[in-house]
Specification:
This protein has about 325 residues and is α/β, with parallel strands linked by helices. It is built from 10 helices and 10 strands. Strand 1, helix 2 and strand 2 form a beta-alpha-beta unit.
């Protein structure tokens, strides 16, 4: 399995031998780690932030503006992506409510290093909430501008690769269903100097037997091509999630997950074949296994650490 993973997920990375599952992962400055809280056995917020700091992890993504997490992040110097839940988008379509959100969760924490606000995560064109994504992005942008934070904090949304199609990657386009939805969003991003956040999971392509020589680059470069064809060729992409499960499905093992994370960290220090200039800002998914996640069994096993804060791999963040 390891040889196959090396070949099809990171063909361009040099392979190294596996030593008793003790994978040493060097985390480049361009990489952060996602902090999900969908579990009933996870460490306290204070312990989580302490773990990030002790491991030298300088970027975090969170999925809701949990006040306890934000309070603990004060003065930590950890750069943050904060997400707005899909279920909250309709209420924030009201400009006053969006301004209130910014005041409660951004302005109230001046000593937290907010980097991006993600308006929704993997909202699809046919979702009822899709109609609110762009208006809420505009409302949040205006609220930030009103307190002169528009240059410091960028507003975006996180998409997944189901919005794109095409192979080889040079033929990448947005799907017919997604085209009108995403085109308005990426134009807004370009106008405001914001990146597009993209969740990229070679694992799901791998178990679907897609015939790519490098799954990560193929998915990323397909998205770059789609942006070009949509008229926004220079838009930056931030890989807001990428990971590999350690159990729960085909190809999911500690060995494969370790191989993936080791090679991912090396890989994003450079660029992709389409955009060779690097690094690629990337967030590993996720800090912990989350035992309350529903759906595919692998969803509970993406953690770099177990809930008891023990590393699933011999990690060295530097």
């Amino acid at each position: 399995m390891e040889d196959s993973l090396e070949q099809y997920v990171f063909h361009s990375c040099s392979s190294s031998s596996y030593i008793n599952q003790q994978v040493i992962i060097q985390i480049a400055q361009s990489a952060g780690v996602c902090y999900g809280r969908n579990g009933d056995n996870l460490p306290s917020e204070a312990d989580v932030v302490a773990l990030y700091k002790s491991r030298g992890i300088t970027r975090m993504r969170i999925y809701d503006p949990n006040p306890a997490t934000l309070e603990t992040l004060r003065g930590s110097n950890i750069e943050l992506i904060v997400n707005i839940f899909k279920g909250n988008l309709q209420s924030l379509n009201d400009a006053g409510k969006a301004t209130e959100w910014v005041h409660n969760y951004i302005r109230a924490f001046p000593d937290v290093k907010f980097r991006y606000i993600a308006v929704g995560n993997e909202v699809h064109p046919n979702d009822a909430e899709a109609q609110f994504v762009l208006p809420v992005m505009r409302n949040i942008q205006n609220a930030l501008s009103s307190i002169n934070l528009q240059g410091q904090i960028k507003v975006s949304t996180a998409i997944d690769t189901r919005l794109q199609t095409g192979y080889p990657p040079a033929n990448g386009v947005f799907t017919e269903a997604a085209n009108s939805y995403i085109t308005q969003i990426i134009r807004f991003l370009a106008e405001n100097g914001s990146p597009l956040l993209a969740n990229i999971y070679p694992y799901f392509a791998y178990v679907s037997n897609l015939d790519y020589q490098n799954l990560f680059d193929a998915l990323l470069d397909t998205l770059y091509s789609a942006l070009e064809k949509a008229g926004v060729p220079g838009l930056k992409i931030v890989v807001s999630e990428s990971g590999w499960p350690s159990e729960g499905g085909d190809g999911a093992s500690v060995e494969n997950a370790g191989t993936y994370y080791r090679n991912l960290i090396n890989h994003v220090k450079g660029g992709s074949p389409k955009r060779k200039e690097g690094p690629i800002e990337t967030y590993l998914f996720a800090m912990f296994d989350e035992n309350k996640k529903e759906g595919n069994p692998v969803e509970q096993h993406f953690g770099l650490f177990s809930p008891n804060q023990q590393p699933k791999y011999q990690l060295n963040f530097s």
